[in-house]
Amino acid sequence: MESTLKRTWAEIDLDALAHNYRTLRAHVGGAVKFLGVVKADAYGHGAVEVSRLLQELGADYLAVSSVDEAMELRKNGITMPILILGHTPREQVGLMIENRITQAVTCRAKAVEYSEEAVRCGGELTVHIKVDTGMSRLGYLCAGRHFATGVQGICDACAMPGLKAEGIFTHFAVADESDEDSAAYTDGQLALFCRVIDAVEARRGEKFALHHCANTGATAARSDTYMDMVRPGLLLYGCGEFAQELGLQPVMTLKTTVSTIKTYDAGTDVSYGRLYTTPCTTRMGVLPYGYADGFQRCLSGKCELVTDHGKAPQRGRICMDMCMIDLTELPQVDVGDEVEVFGKRNRVDDLAALAGTIPYELTCAVSKRVPRIYFRGGQEVSRELLLRF
Ligand SMILES: *Cc1c(COP(=O)(O)O)cnc(C)c1O
Fold this sequence. Notes:
By secondary structure, the chain is α/β, with parallel strands linked by helices. It contains twelve helices and 21 strands. The chain has helices at 14-28, 39-43, 47-57, 67-74, 93-98, 108-121, 147-159, 180-204, 216-221, 241-245, 348-354, 359-365, and strands at residues 8-13, 33-37, 61-64, 82-84, 101-105, 125-132, 140-141, 163-170, 210-214, 229-230, 252-257, 260-264, 269-270, 276-277, 282-287, 304-307, 310-315, 323-326, 338-342, 372-376, 379-384. The strands form three sheets. A ten-stranded mixed β-sheet has the order 12-15-18-17-16-19-11-1-20-21. An eight-stranded parallel barrel has the order 2-3-4-5-6-8-9-10, surrounded by five helices. The protein is elongated. The mean pLDDT is 96.
């Protein structure tokens, strides 16, 4: 581990995470429960450490995308409820029951599989019913002429032996977009979700304990979607426009170091493809940070990274393990100096925009060879490297 520190690493500011959680809790109000989405290793931040803190702070639920992600949390002391949003094969139903893991039920076929397996195991699987109100991905199709069959399918699932229907939820397609058309689409999804809930609960004569739909965009900007529980991911990590508006702080700062500095004559070609030719005498730094660490190759020659003395333009093709930055205007920068790729001084949102993508993709891309170093109260509290030694 020591060997890889001071190469390229991600600093995870748990105080920023706590600040974001508390700010969001205050934003949604005391009556609304809080589910933190920690799928994909908490968007690259480290699901175990993030979940430990959320559990300590009193969050109500966590969500992941697979049973492996859920089990990682259970094996690391996370006892609070966990919802699996995605596909779980029927063979894992026993494991979910044993570990009190909640599963999303997304269609009749899955409901039947889960029910059969739960009965076979002699246990009860807690489930949340997923309603497709316009995302057109997972969930019982309920729009338009599918309303009656959708409601029937959901009622059938709730009545199946071995299943305990604790919750019902849906997912918005454009809640993070602020134009009128998107707002109207979200209105439509919300209205349909409410109609489905009313119809199912009237038929069953029983209410679900948890109704939820608010992802990041809705949690930030639409209090009419809160219901019993909000379900943000990105906001928690302090990324995206809404995070800026709410005064949330970026949790991850990705740092690397200057490994070599060389001075080239004018007319020197730099890196693969000879994309960049020095226009004058140029002082170039090599960073041990490339696309295998998660640096989008499409950013080659398009971005700036932050040194302690100012911003340095990235030059030439980004390689697998390295990239170059221009230090001609920053003579004070020396070998061994730290460089911030993104974080508090260089927002990941800006870098994502330059790459033509969303911040989610950049934090998720930070690869397993980049150690995560966790800080609390300004002190390092733990380290994690996802390699097998
Ligand atoms: C990923 C995910 C979320 C969280 O999305 P954010 O945009 O990060 O808030 C919420 N609900 C579901 C079903 C998801 O898949």
